[in-house]
Structures are given as C-alpha cells and as structure tokens.
Amino acid sequence: MNKTVLLIGLGNMGTALARTLLDAGYETWVWNRTKEKAGTLLEKGARWSKEVWAAVGSVDHVVMCLSNYVNCVGLLSTCSDLKNKALIQLSTGTASDARSFENLVKQKRGRYLDGAILAYPSNIGDPRCSLLVAGNSLA
Ligand SMILES: NC(=O)c1ccc[n+]([C@@H]2O[C@H](COP(=O)([O-])OP(=O)(O)OC[C@H]3O[C@@H](n4cnc5c(N)ncnc54)[C@H](OP(=O)(O)O)[C@@H]3O)[C@@H](O)[C@H]2O)c1
C-alpha cells in the first residue's frame, strides 16, 4: 500500500484516523467542513486540501469518515473524477447505503472499499482495534 491518503472528515473518529496515519508515516491530506478542527493535525504535519477534492490527484487513497452516508453522497456528488483512486468509506451505514455509494464511486471513476470500525476513536491505532472491510482489491 502506498503512503499517501486524503482523509475527508475530521470529527472524533476522522481525527483519530488522521493522527494514526501521520504516526504511521503516511503523507496525509485532510479536509473538513469546519477547517478549525484540522489545526492540531496541520501542526503535526498533515496537509490541508483547499477544496475537498483538490488533493485527489496527489494521493493514492481517499478515506471518508462523516456522520452518515447522506453527507458523503452530498460531498461526492461535487467530485468530477476520482482518477481511479480507491475510496475507503468508513462512515457508518447500511448494506443498501454501501451498494448505492459504490455505484456513485464507480460513476466518478473510483474503486470502492466499504469499512466498519469496531472501536472508539481512542482505540484507533491500537493493535486490538478491528476494522471490517469489503470491496474491490486495492491492487
Ligand atoms: N465515534 C465513534 O465511537 C465511532 C465508532 C465507530 C464508527 N464511527 C463512525 O464514524 C463516523 C464519524 O463519527 P465521528 O465520531 O467522527 O462523528 P463526529 O465527531 O460527529 O463528526 C462528524 C463529521 O461529519 C462531518 N459532517 C457532518 N455533516 C456534514 C455535512 N453536511 N457536510 C460535510 N461534513 C459533514 C463533520 O464536519 P464538521 O466538523 O464540519 O461538523 C465531522 O467531520 C460516523 O459514521 C460514526 O458512526 C464512530
């Protein structure tokens, strides 16, 4: 897996994911509706994507972690091209949400993985933290 990622959504979970990616050496681009929440991550070395999809061309993977799929659909609708990047959806939703979202990702020329985080933000990065992931291979 290459070490560049765009992480969209810096709530409690997204911030924990971004911090862990930075600690693991990933070049981590971030975007959040409320930019102020990125402050600590930017000090830690994260890079700010001025517009939500502006950094897609600079990364190998995109991670979304918003409050729900409706908000993710709203944001992804504004993306013109995912440039064959893998989008990893870590927002909580139903199987039906995931299937619909996968179709939208494919329309935007992206590859799709859907994940469920079985942990609290404070446990992200802990070896006992589990993620369930399904979808296309990243290869
Ligand atoms: N926290 C947990 O323990 C936990 C555990 C497992 C899974 N999850 C899942 O992880 C996801 C994120 O959870 P969280 O705890 O990080 O939630 P959170 O702290 O409430 O953060 C919600 C995120 O969604 C963004 N957002 C909400 N409405 C938006 C909109 N209309 N457009 C763009 N962005 C919007 C927020 O942006 P702003 O900052 O601008 O408001 C924020 O980045 C959820 O799907 C949750 O079910 C959470």
Your description of this structure?
- Helix 1 (12-23) links the parallel strand 1 (4-8) and strand 2.
- Strands 3-2-1-4-5-6-7 form a 7-stranded mixed sheet, sandwiched between helices.
- The chain has helices at residues 12-23, 39-43, 69-76, 95-107, and strands at 4-8, 27-31, 47-48, 61-64, 86-89, 111-118, 130-135.
- The protein is of the alpha/beta class.
- It has a single domain (4-135), classed as NAD(P)-binding Rossmann-like Domain (Rossmann fold, 3-Layer(aba) Sandwich).
- Helix 3 runs parallel beside helix 4 (95-107).
- NADP nicotinamide-adenine-dinucleotide phosphate is lined by residues 9-14, 32-34, 37, 65-68, 71, 74-75, 91-92, 117, 120-121.
Main sheet, how many strands, which sense, barrel?
Answer: 7 strands, mixed
Output the number of helix runs: 4
Helix content: 25-40%
Oligomer: single chain
User: Could you tell me how far the N terminus lies from the C terminus, measured between alpha carbons in angstroms?
Assistant: 8 Å
Which secondary-structure class do the elements indicate? alpha/beta
How many domains make up the 3D coordinates? 1
What is the name of the CATH superfamily? Answer: NAD(P)-binding Rossmann-like Domain
Uncertain regions spanning at least 5 consecutive residues: none
Strand arrangement in the largest pleated sheet: 3-2-1-4-5-6-7
Rg, alpha carbons: 14 Å
What's the total count of β strands? 7
Q: Strand portion, in percent?
A: 15-25%
Run of helices and strands = EHEHEEHEHEE
CATH topology name: Rossmann fold
Q: Could you say which overall geometry the principal axes of the C-alpha atoms support? A: globular
